[in-house]
Amino acid sequence: MALEGQxxxxxxxxxxxxxxxxxxxxxxxxxxxxxxxxxVGEEVVVSADIFxxxxxxxxxxxxxxxxxxxxxxxxxxxxxxxxxxxxxxTVTRQGWHEYSIQAWVDRFLSWHKELSKKHEAGQPDLTxxxxxxxxxxxxxxxxxxxxxxxxxxxRARFLAGPESQSARAWAGLDRELVERMARYPDxxxxxxxxxxxxxxxxxxRARFxxxxxxxxxxxxSEPGRHxxxxxxxxxxxxxxxxxxxxxYLPPIHPIGRAFRKGPNNSLTPGPNDPGSxxxxxxxxxxxxxxxxxxxxxxxxxxxxxxxxxxxIEIALDIxxxxxxxxxxxxxxxxxxxxxxxxxxxxxxxxxxxxxxxxPIDFECDDWKALWAELRDVFLFWIDHGVSIFRVDxxxxxxxxxxxxxxxxxxxxxxxxxxxxxxFTRPKVMKRLAKGGYSQSYTYFTWxxxxxxxxxxxxxxxxxxxxxxxxxxxxxxxxxxLPEYLQVGGRPSFMIxxxxxxxxxxxxxxxxxxxxxxxxxxxxxxxxxxxxxEKYQVRHWDLDAPWSLxxxxxxxxxxxxxxxxxxxxxxxxxxxxxxDAMLCYGKSTPDLSNLxxxxxxxxxxxxxxxxxxxxxxxxxxxxxxxxxxxxxxLISDARYLWHGDANFVQLDPHVSPAHILQVRRRLRxxxxxxxxx
Amino acid sequence: MALEGQxxxxxxxxxxxxxxxxxxxxxxxxxxxxxxxxxVGEEVVVSADIFxxxxxxxxxxxxxxxxxxxxxxxxxxxxxxxxxxxxxxTVTRQGWHEYSIQAWVDRFLSWHKELSKKHEAGQPDLTxxxxxxxxxxxxxxxxxxxxxxxxxxxRARFLAGPESQSARAWAGLDRELVERMARYPDxxxxxxxxxxxxxxxxxxRARFxxxxxxxxxxxxSEPGRHxxxxxxxxxxxxxxxxxxxxxYLPPIHPIGRAFRKGPNNSLTPGPNDPGSxxxxxxxxxxxxxxxxxxxxxxxxxxxxxxxxxxxIEIALDIxxxxxxxxxxxxxxxxxxxxxxxxxxxxxxxxxxxxxxxxPIDFECDDWKALWAELRDVFLFWIDHGVSIFRVDxxxxxxxxxxxxxxxxxxxxxxxxxxxxxxFTRPKVMKRLAKGGYSQSYTYFTWxxxxxxxxxxxxxxxxxxxxxxxxxxxxxxxxxxLPEYLQVGGRPSFMIxxxxxxxxxxxxxxxxxxxxxxxxxxxxxxxxxxxxxEKYQVRHWDLDAPWSLxxxxxxxxxxxxxxxxxxxxxxxxxxxxxxDAMLCYGKSTPDLSNLxxxxxxxxxxxxxxxxxxxxxxxxxxxxxxxxxxxxxxLISDARYLWHGDANFVQLDPHVSPAHILQVRRRLRxxxxxxxxx
Lengths: 676, 676
Fold this sequence. Notes:
Two copies of one chain form a homodimer.
Chain A: H1 5-12, E1 20-26, E2 36-39, E3 43-52, E4 58-66, E5 73-76, E6 78-81, E7 84-90, E8 95-105, H2 107-120, H3 127-143, H4 146-159, H5 165-173, H6 175-182, E9 191-192, E10 197-202, E11 209-213, H7 229-241, E12 246-249, H8 297-309, E13 313-318, E14 321-322, H9 327-331, E15 347-349, E16 352-354, E17 358-359, H10 367-383, E18 388-392, H11 399-412, E19 417-421, H12 426-434, E20 439-440, H13 450-461, H14 465-468, E21 473-474, H15 483-487, H16 489-503, E22 506-510, H17 549-561, E23 572-576, E24 581-587, E25 594-600, E26 607-612, E27 627-632, E28 638-642, E29 645-650, E30 657-663, E31 665-669, E32 672-675
Parallel strand pairs in A: 2-10, 11-12, 11-22, 12-13, 13-18, 18-19, 19-20, 21-22
Antiparallel strand pairs in A: 1-3, 3-7, 4-5, 4-8, 6-7, 8-9, 8-10, 14-17, 15-16, 23-24, 23-26, 24-25, 25-30, 26-29, 27-28, 27-30, 31-32
Helix pairs in contact in A: 2-3, 3-4, 3-5, 7-8, 10-11, 16-17
């Protein structure tokens, strides 16, 4: 169909109000004020309640287009039940896309339905009905052109002609007539849904990716030296070897001297303590400068290029706050709040004082210049080849700043991806996502039990939230060493890795502490690391025998090879009759790639249970004796499973999880089965 | 607070975008496109998600006013939890009312919160903080006038003055300062919710009333005669005696002769058969005329006046369809659809034909004149003292016609009440309600089991549906003799009466068949009455000994005397450990009137069970030994109940239900208890 919306609306203008109601449209974020999100190649499934009075036939179409296109693509909406209709389309181009709905009472289809009933009921005289149909078809011929017009005109003549009633009735009920008539509907009475809804279509990496966070200054090959971009370059094969797509670096800018923090966040640093990278800005520059200890812009650009060569993108941390030594403080004191004595206000959370941090005053009188400058920070690093930004504490800056700045950047650079590091209240996190953030940190880091994981993942990955929010499941961060990892030893790291990497299409770890299974907090009850890299340079022996690097590499390889793991909305939990075990699956829409994950959540003990798969829904055969093969992609073991209940036992000290590729039986030859 | 919204919005115009988010506003019907409903004196409870970035204090107000008022009334929104806020107001004037929300970051309250924390933490130097506060108070003084301005100016001086830090800190934390400052907030950064939502405020009868439907032509005092309005007049004391508020008459217009239906819907009427009142229009006139057999306009006006004198309103049936003899057919043939041979199309539901009915074509070219004429039908009867209309089959006419006509009528006559007789799909029924219908027929008529009643009533009376839809629970209608009443005998009528009258603030019966326990259908499997009054004149002996008139009178008296039964949204179901028994309660907001109903749903057998009341929530005392009195208002029996579980047994052949007024113990004197 290639009907023009504007023409329809015009033709409807002086007509009686439409008899069709369109309501309950989904997805629609905050009444259509804010966009949903997709990546290129993903489907959008739209549903709505659509109905009219009486018994006439309704036709409804879903219209969509890249913003700025002249015409609309149209796909039919199909009736489900209880006045609910649904339709779907795939977005194929990065950038803004939009969709809406139109529906109308179709006079021809209403006539067709009635004729069909009367014909079936054997009503003897259909003269009047056939003449009415002839009129409708003749009118459509007027709207048509070319061969369709001729065809319809001829059919109208036939319906009103001298042939037998039976022949004419069949000509009226004919499928080809229905198809041709559908191209030229009578659109008086068209109902145009009063909102055009938008979609932010991003590149694949916004949906699927494995993140590795590390401190460049701890990347030196020998202990005691401050690491550089050159050292990070040397570390790239290690990171690529583990299969990561994104290498995320904490702030790389000059670090303030005033009120610098020492090791373990102490207030009394030594002269050689490097300070926290989040105390941004020194005499050497601010958010557009590089810490001299890390190297030069050439070094940085080279790192970005080398990483790209290994399939890795560099992500930067953008923390909009300043150390007292930041150039903004001298050059734009009006961008900060001042105390009555004229000094700039430092950050506080009474009774705590953060004298090393000056918060930016986003509401200052000079806000327009300030906002433009902060936007330019993103554009600056985009010019240096960076297009992934992890934004620090966005929930302490105005929502409408993010709405604005992300749109400003993204409209020019739709490759830009923004990750919101907002560990805060649910509605605040959701609002940041609605405002344009591609990805969000989540509560996954603290969800350990079967009930917690099931509830939270269902909230995050299914339903309305998934339309605009994508979790990036970090297993740990420099700020968060979860209690589970403090007490669970090496198995707990394997468990959390598998969960993060298979529950989430995007996940991350902070290494090397993660792969080295570092679980010691600065003190009991704290989630801070002991001797945290936030305040000091550390050195890691990458060849430590207890390292999980090979395990991580295998898990990331499995992720890459199995498209089922590249999405979130396909997550589905399955029953296991043991609360210490979690089972879930993901599959491609055509079920050709089906992954079932079984995890022992208990890092101490072997657990076992019966896993229940909905074999019918998963097309694994129907009969109870039907067998299928599950292939553990971690251990390479293969098992034959039967029916919907199968026994699984997992020893956390050997392998706490199965990542099972499920293979259907293709055919049986004598006593040997082939599996696809 | 008496702040002007427009002034606020203006002052905010050139300022930085607001830091506050307002979303998830409830109630909000279809994104604010359609109104919620209330009656005069009812509360509106509004909730919303409101938050800002960071930790600053937010203030939010709910603004409301009768549409057309110059100013807004404001009530505070109060924080609940998880960023949800709520506020409430009462509508006191009939007509359109509107509401919206405004919120802002309050700099003074943010300062106050911080000072309070620092003061509690014993921070030694508060010099800077107190000077900041002085500035904020001085700025508020500029916005204030009169004594407040002077008071605030003085307080600002004190905060910045030479007094001790402790004295000045207390002056900053002072409650009176907070109250005075709240009157003059700094509204730069105000967030104005982008929708103004509307409320249709109706009179009490739209919410609470007992309806009685009867055929005037069956009201003659002697058998065989066609009843008249005079006979209905004579019947008024009978109807008033049973305690009804609304007497609803099927169409009173001239009845068509062409294709008239005979008894039991036969196609071969005798010459004296009166026809169906819904085949509207004859040579004597149409929707603005009276059937000559019923009397004159004087008779009608007299009936309306007499009824009013007994506290009864006459409701008319408006059925927008025509018999072939209707004057519209001659005078406005363009208002109907035509067949190719020039004749007008009669109604059909293939293979059935309804040749006695011509549907009106609401989409005809002359629709504007048609719609105006149909509106005038309502206005015509309003001029004759009728303001309650039961609209026949509104779901077969365009929704937007109803939206338009109800607004047209209601804007001039806000006493008008419209009841939608739409027994159709749920979303269609809801859309009619959203479009302005005061009341709706419901599926109650077919909901018999405990599960069905609980589910359906919770859907209808709680949650979003209750914001715009009010069920009128009819126990039977001339079209519906439910199977339950066909088989259950007299107890089934008592059961359905109690359910309708106590579940619904508005309910109705069609009599005399109802009070006479008439349960014989035209044939097995049909819900049509045998010898239905729709097609013939009947005569009823009002003094039949099996009549339920006294039982009905008592139930309606209980309804009138107990304000708890005047609302729907206060319905709450309680547990009974017997699926054949249903228990629920209603109370006034202050719990001073509390009614608990226990019904045996089984019309054949005695049933018993333990009724569980949430005694704590209902303020019936806390201790397990606490007693309260339940007074069965039907039988006048009183029982002492203890704690939350009490035994009830009901014999349907004696009395299938308790309507219990619950009385708390006021005091105990020796061994005698007084109950309020």
